[in-house]
Design a protein that fits this description.
The protein has 224 residues and is α/β, with parallel strands linked by helices. 50% of the residues lie in helices and 12% in strands. It starts with a helix and ends in a 10-residue tail after the last helix. Bound molecules: Pyrrolo-dC (8LK). Pyrrolo-dC binds next to helix 5 and helix 6.
């Protein structure tokens, strides 16, 4: 109830590997006019004052990881802070997956060095100390790395052409440990897990199963 007093809408963030079907998921929920949907601001990452930081990062991660993730954190914060009139906010990814999945991975691979991670982390701690970035539900689109990788190849995003399978495998493990096994970092909210390996022809049934939670009709713990 306190959340209502602060005027923050019910906020759900959709998390999952690259190729886990987040865009398809958001499209399903775009039919509800009481839900404000925010896709990842990938076009901002592709054009920061004319620079395609996403391409820079995939071309030379050691040189550009900090720059890229620093901008990602800013663009995601802007979305967390966006005022909406609808009672429900549905976001693709968050400052949490930025820090706990992607920065985590770049740190492990030595692509972002400890001083840089420390600066990103100081910003993260400050940003997440604010009510704006509070989250009420995490929707984990759980895939196998094989299925995710297949979809990446099919989608054929130009910047992702050099992404190797073991990067997707590693990101899968990080998402699993963060949101499923809960052994890596803290979850910002209760998590519902969807089987995102399901084919696009049947996956709307899976979305529908969890609509009551995502549309804030029943508490997360309630049995479907
Ligand atoms: C929050 C967050 C999203 C995000 C996406 N990406 C990459 C993965 C995909 O190739 C592309 C679009 O999600 O950007 C990243 O490197 N770091 C990120 N951090």
């Amino acid at each position: 109830a306190s959340k209502r007093l602060s005027g923050r809408p019910f906020t759900a963030v959709v998390e999952g590997n690259i190729g886990s079907g987040k865009t398809t998921f958001l499209k399903h929920f775009s039919r509800y006019d009481n839900v404000a949907i925010f896709a990842e601001p990938i076009d901002m990452w592709r054009n920061c004052n004319g620079y395609n930081l996403l391409e820079y990062m995939y071309t030379d991660a050691k040189k550009w990881s900090f720059t890229f993730q620093s901008y990602v954190q800013l663009t995601m914060l802007r979305i967390h802070q966006k005022k909406i009139v609808q009672p429900i906010k549905l976001m693709e990814r968050s400052v949490y997956s930025a820090r706990f999945c992607f920065v985590e991975k770049m740190q492990r691979d030595g692509l972002m060095l400890p001083p840089s991670v420390s600066v990103i982390d100081e910003w993260f701690k400050y940003i997440t100390s604010m009510e704006d970035t509070a989250v009420d539900l995490v929707v984990y689109l759980r895939t196998t790395p094989e299925v995710a990788y297949e979809r990446i190849l099919k989608r054929n995003r130009s910047e992702e052409r050099t992404v190797p399978y073991d990067y997707i495998q590693a990101l899968h493990e990080i998402h699993e440990n963060w949101l499923y096994n809960k052994t890596l970092h803290t979850c910002p909210a209760p998590v519902i897990v969807l089987d995102a390996d399901l084919d696009i022809s049947v996956i709307s049934e899976e979305y529908k199963r969890f609509e009551p939670h995502i549309l804030n009709k029943i508490p997360v713990g309630a049995k479907v």
